[in-house]
């Protein structure tokens, strides 16, 4: 094979084989289960954008995986990219019709708990959660971001087709010289026992199905489903001094003391006030001491 053809060969990087879509479908799509379809595409702009556009015509549990994304988005429409097959880049469609819409804001936090649980079981990696949507791993003695979660409303608002598309991006085999920023990380750099993406994806989707089922069965109640407790236990933001950068160029500095029943981060400020933060960027400062 000549170098000019190597880029087009899906096996050109032997350390990064393609996902086995047929095997994933056999093990994940089952009667009575959450996952209704699973598609793997070689490349797309954004799996979230694709699923949001098709949400009304798809049943709950559709999964779309891309080996590479050219227009991946994080929160606040931030762009990010990664080499083909270097991570897990996928979106799922959830339609929790029986859960009050005001509790749907827990879905990205639930997804974080599910991802951390699945990765711990299969890869032996402790994945911490940075409120509201970042997945952190430890590389050496440094805390680094290895992934993120983006939830978007989709489908007919208030109708039977309404739902939420949740996108997950996770760096798996990203090498040090491929990191987009020094604060990024990957499962490989964190010492994962496996970087085989097939069992990793299966573990994350099974964990998400389990947590979602419990939460939905409790009517979305974060306390009754023990989601609030599990999130707090795995949240690296709690107990630390942080700066919340809010819309309108506002900022609040304080100790993160709780995640409340609405999924908001509660900050105890130096003025002796507890302020809940529902949206914004959180910067971890030195631990409160």
From TrEMBL:
Keywords: Biotin, Ligase. Residues 23-216 form the BPL/LPL catalytic domain. The keyword Lipid biosynthesis does not apply. It is an enzyme of class 6 (ligase). The keyword Protein biosynthesis does not apply. GO terms for molecular function: biotin--[biotin carboxyl-carrier protein] ligase activity. Its EC number is 6.3.4.15. NCBIfam families: birA_ligase. PANTHER family: BIOTIN PROTEIN LIGASE, BIOTIN--PROTEIN LIGASE. This is biotin--[biotin carboxyl-carrier protein] ligase. It comes from Streptomyces huasconensis.
């Amino acid at each position: 094979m000549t170098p000019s053809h190597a880029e087009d060969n899906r096996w050109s990087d032997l350390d990064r084989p393609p996902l086995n879509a047929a095997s994933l479908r056999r093990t994940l799509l089952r009667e009575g289960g959450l996952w209704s379809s699973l598609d793997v595409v070689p490349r797309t702009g954004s799996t979230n954008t694709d699923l949001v556009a098709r949400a009304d015509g798809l049943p709950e549990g559709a999964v779309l995986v891309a080996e590479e994304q050219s227009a991946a988005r994080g929160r606040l429409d931030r762009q990010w990219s990664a080499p083909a097959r270097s991570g897990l880049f996928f979106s799922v469609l959830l339609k929790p019709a029986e859960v009050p819409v005001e509790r749907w804001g827990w879905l990205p936090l639930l997804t974080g708990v599910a991802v951390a649980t699945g990765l711990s079981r299969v890869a032996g990696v402790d994945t911490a959660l940075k409120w509201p949507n970042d997945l952190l791993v430890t590389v050496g003695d440094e805390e680094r971001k290895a992934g993120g979660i983006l939830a978007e409303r989709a489908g007919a608002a208030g109708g039977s087709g309404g739902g939420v598309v949740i996108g997950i991006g996770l760096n798996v085999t990203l090498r040090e010289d491929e990191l987009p920023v020094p604060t990024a990380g990957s499962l490989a750099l964190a010492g994962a026992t496996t970087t085989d993406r097939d069992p990793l994806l299966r573990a994350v989707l099974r964990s998400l199905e389990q947590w979602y089922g419990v939460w939905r069965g409790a009517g979305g109640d974060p306390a009754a489903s023990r989601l609030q407790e599990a999130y707090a236990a795995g949240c690296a933001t709690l107990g630390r001094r942080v700066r919340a950068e809010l819309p309108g160029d506002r900022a609040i500095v304080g100790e993160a003391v709780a995640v409340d029943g609405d999924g908001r981060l509660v900050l105890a400020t130096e003025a002796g006030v507890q302020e809940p933060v529902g949206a914004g960027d959180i910067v971890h400062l030195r631990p409160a001491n």
